TrEMBL record, chain A:
This is Insulinase family protein. It holds the Pfam family Peptidase_M16. It comes from the Bacteria. It comes from Micromonospora thermarum. Residues 185-358 form the Peptidase M16 C-terminal domain. InterPro entries: Metalloenz_LuxS/M16, MPP/UQCRC_Complex, Pept_M16_N, Peptidase_M16_C. Residues 31-166 form the Peptidase M16 N-terminal domain.
TrEMBL record, chain B:
This is Insulinase family protein. Residues 181-360 form the Peptidase M16 C-terminal domain. Pfam families: Peptidase_M16 (PF00675), Peptidase_M16_C (PF05193). Residues 21-139 form the Peptidase M16 N-terminal domain. It comes from the Bacteria. It comes from Micromonospora thermarum.
């Protein structure tokens, strides 16, 4: 047999261009669009400054409940008629919530987009919010969270977040709230949140064949009947890493795996170190070839996978590592994961690792930004973080230009292995003694 | 919308060693998707070797004669690519999307592990990936409520020795017993060019791809006799419904109703696809309207129905609902069964049919909106139906389904005696 033994080199690089961005003011709101010639489908996404960060303390889950309540009937039609009308166009109403924004979107064949945007606006601007419906949706959402919290993960995530940011702060509580906070919401909370944040115009993001779309008409439909201007979004929130490591043990009797969530606070999105920090995170835990995945999965076989990254919103950020490891190896997996974080902080990254990380991140810009949904999401990033139209082109250059010194410095500055909160959700009776023996930090047991 | 479900060019060739090559050029983005479908899945696994096809998929990332261990991932990600692989009862596929200038690298990597895996396969690698797969099993199936539903449904739907009787993830006992020689033989038997389809979609011409395919894959010898999987096309009806009740640690009662229908790709399965959408996709579906909205006995986020697109035997249709607090499994199960039964007796309206077809159209075009989505579809149709061009027929076939056909198929395959019902109840409420 003759296989070719020599690895082929790259052909001539072909330039990647992010689609041309069109921005215009329409009817008091902003339309931000990208032209995708020939695409059969188009996406419209309404972006509102109504992220979880806008929820008052003690009212966690408000946005998630309101998202569900939007589809329980509008001023014009009941819930069933609404579902049939929008699904007859070939789309469901897709809602999304993060710390910085609330997003509602539709995806349809391009000629149906005007009708879909009208229905989207009808639900967002004029939901019925009948008290009985809101209460039922709230109860269903609390039940859905209880179901979700029966899985490994959500309790560990909540414990990590609370330890990093303080449970007394909104950003120290789960993004979607928890079963109790949702169950405690009342109808008035939901109606007030809607009137405060859902009738401001916001931004309509459109990704599709613009030759076949009238952006002014889409904007007019999305912003009809809206009022009120932008509200100050606040600056970065200073978060101090904790003094010393601690282990938070979340008991899950009978668990055949232990869920690991390790983390500490990190810079907000607009921090000048964002790109090198992202690359340091990629080398440590962001790609399949990362240090953590290589050691914990490929060498040790402790897990199906382990990932670590820096995530940043407008006002705060966090570094976190997540995995599920076989119960019997919980302690060694934890020790080795902390060891890799420490090594990366102390000695930085190598050129060989960084070469993979930066080409991967840069190449992903051409590989991942193909579909209308992906382009719409990229446009939403521009809007939420006040980024320029040529952001993706500049990002590519900045990624490729990041050198070992810059990335190693970011690792040294923004990794804090001595301040890690180590959350372990697993069978406490089986793993507690081993965790104590690691000496990685004091152990606190929680039952959130 | 275009009349065809695949309005892009398709060109095909077959190398002398039997490797089929499919190319669909599209210059709209500087990316190219490479996809290999190997016609081997868990349906080929004999008793005692469950989970081997999937464990083998893992081994394919661990190095081959000219690619060192861990290098495969590093090279693909290091050129900006995305990659993965999946195994199901029918087949195993491997795919990467890379910036177009790295097409040749992707083909070299795929050829090296098709033609040169066995010499690089070590006991250490096998042991390591066996542990990884066992952790995958724990994470996906054992450590989550209802996680083993699929593992329980399959043996209820398909009799012992049927190729779909066991789940692709396999049993812990079989995984523990896996030895190196078996895996070496597995590769020799099934990972032959004449048992594979190579599809390339995106920023590359057919001529360029055909030449590169010949250069990298052309010297890999074919295997003359590839043993087929057991034939599962005819599954004798037992005449008795299958019922299983699982008492375990779950947060709420849940019921699955499942039926064997028709094989994916057949006209009957096109009807099932539309039927499943009418029944259980979206808030306008019958299940949502009746159980979540109307009677309010089911949790709205956890009610639905779907077909599992398997092509080598009657494929499953699965409908499921999870109880609202205070609702018993019995009441929920009765409600679910009633809605499924009514597909044969209460005609599907034009509104229901149009809604289902609109949702399916969007789903189809969503799959087509990326080069990797298209590559996977073309690989499937070339592997399972002998011609990637047949992919264009699927959407029009869905759009031609009538209400009468849905009632006929429902009466034919969704009858009570052919039903599988799997119910989970929590330890406290049982």
């Amino acid at each position: 047999m003759t296989l070719i033994t020599t690895r082929p080199g790259a052909g001539a690089a072909r330039p990647y261009r992010f689609p041309q961005v069109v921005r215009r003011g329409v009817a008091g709101g902003q339309v931000v669009a990208a032209h995708l010639p020939g695409q059969t489908l188009a996406v419209a996404l309404l972006l509102l400054d109504a992220g979880a960060g806008r929820e008052p303390g003690g009212k966690e889950g408000l946005g998630a409940v309101l998202a569900k309540a939007l589809e329980e009937g509008t001023a014009q039609r009941d819930a069933t008629a609404y579902a049939l009308a929008i699904e007859a166009l070939g789309t469901e109403l897709v809602t999304g919530l993060d710390w910085d924004s609330f997003q509602v979107s539709v995806q349809v064949p391009v000629d149906r987009l005007p009708a879909a945007v009208e229905l989207l606006a009808e639900a967002v601007r004029t939901p019925r919010l009948d008290p009985d419906d809101v209460r039922r949706v709230r109860d269903d959402e609390a039940t859905a969270l209880r179901m979700d919290w029966a899985n490994p993960g959500p309790r560990a995530d909540a414990a990590l977040r609370a330890d990093l940011f303080g449970g007394e702060n909104r950003w120290g509580r789960p993004l979607y709230g928890d079963p109790d906070s949702v169950a405690a919401l009342d109808v008035e909370d939901v109606r007030v949140f809607h009137s405060e944040w859902f009738i401001r115009p916001g931004t309509l993001v459109v990704a599709g064949d613009l030759d076949r779309l009238d952006l002014d008409a889409l904007g007019a439909a999305a912003f009809a009947g809206t009022g009120g201007g932008p509200v100050d979004r606040g600056g970065p929130i200073p978060v101090v890493p904790r003094d010393g490591r601690r282990i938070v043990l979340v008991d899950r009797p009978g668990s055949v795996q232990s869920t690991l969530r390790l983390g500490h606070p990190s810079p907000h999105r607009a921090h000048p170190d964002h790109v090198p920090t992202t690359l340091a995170g990629t080398v440590l835990g962001g790609a399949f070839t990362s240090r953590l995945n290589h050691l914990i999965r490929e060498v040790r076989g402790y897990t199906y996978g382990i990932r670590g990254d820096f995530a940043a919103s407008r006002r705060f950020g966090r570094f976190a590592v997540a995995s599920g490891v076989q119960t019997a190896v919980t302690a060694p997996a934890l020790v080795e994961a902390v060891g890799e974080i420490t090594r990366t902080q102390e000695t930085g990254v190598t050129e060989e690792e960084l070469a993979v990380a930066r080409s991967w991140r840069a190449g992903q810009l051409s590989v991942e930004l193909q579909t209308p949904r992906a382009i719409a999401s990229a446009l939403a990033t521009l809007v939420v973080h006040d980024l320029p139209d040529d952001y993706h082109a500049r990002l590519r250059e900045e990624l490729l230009a990041a050198d070992v010194d810059r990335v190693s410095t970011a690792a040294a500055t923004h990794l804090h292995p001595g301040s890690l909160t180590l959350v372990i959700e697993g069978d406490a009776a089986l793993i507690r003694d081993d965790l104590v023996a690691t000496g990685l930090g004091e152990i606190v047991t929680t039952t959130p | 919308m275009p009349d065809s479900g695949y309005p892009w060019p398709i060109e095909t060739t077959r190398l002398d060693n039997g490797l089929r090559v499919v190319v669909s050029e599209d210059r709209s983005a500087p990316a190219v998707a490479v996809n290999l479908w190997y016609d081997v899945g868990s349906r080929h696994e004999p008793e005692g070797q469950t989970g081997f096809a999937h464990l083998f998929e893992h081994l394919m990332f661990e190095g081959s004669v000219n690619v060192a261990k861990t290098e495969h991932m590093k090279l693909v990600q290091g050129c900006g690519g995305s990659l993965n692989a999946t195994t199901n009862p029918d087949r195993t596929n491997y795919f990467e999307t890379v910036p177009a200038e790295h097409l040749e690298l992707a083909l070299w990597l795929e050829a090296d592990r098709m033609g040169g895996l066995v010499p690089a396969l070590t006991q250490e690698t096998l042991d390591n990936q066996r542990d990884v797969v066992k952790n995958e099993r724990r994470q996906r199936y054992e450590n989550v409520p209802y996680g083993d539903a699929w593992l329980r449904l399959l043996p209820l739907l398909y009799p012992p020795r049927h190729p779909y009787h066991h789940a692709t993830i396999g049993s812990m006992a079989d995984l523990n017993a896996a030895d190196l020689a078996t895996f070496q033989a597995f590769h020799t038997t099934y990972y032959a060019p004449n048992n594979a389809v190579l599809t390339v979609v995106g920023d590359a011409s057919a001529a360029e791809v055909f030449a590169l395919a010949e250069k990298y894959f052309g010297a890999i010898p074919p295997r003359p006799e590839i043993p087929p999987a057991p034939d599962g096309r005819h599954v004798p009806a037992t005449g008795e419904p299958a019922v299983e009740r699982v008492v375990t640690d779950v947060p709420a009662p849940r019921v699955y109703v499942a039926h064997r229908t028709h094989a994916f790709g057949s006209p009957g399965y096109d009807v099932v696809t539309v039927l499943a959408t009418v029944l259980g996709s979206g808030r306008g579906s019958r299940l949502y309207q009746r159980l979540a909205e109307g009677e309010r006995i089911a949790q709205p986020d956890l009610v639905g129905a779907y077909g599992v697109d398997l092509a080598h035997a009657p494929a499953p249709l699965i409908a499921t609902a999870t109880a609202r607090p205070g609702v018993t499994a019995e009441r929920l199960g009765a409600g679910l069964a009633e809605v499924v039964d009514e597909l044969a007796t209460v005609p599907v309206t034009a509104t229901e049919l149009d809604r289902a077809k609109a949702l399916l159209s969007t789903a189809w075009w969503r799959q087509m909106s990326s080069v990797e989505g298209r590559a996977d579809v073309l690989g499937r149709y070339a592997t399972q139906f002998g011609d990637p061009r047949k992919a264009a027929e699927r959407l029009p076939a869905w759009l031609a389904v009538t209400a009468e056909q849905i009632a006929e198929v429902a009466a034919d395959v969704l009858a009570g005696p052919d039903r599988v019902t799997l119910t989970y109840v929590s330890e406290e409420t049982s």
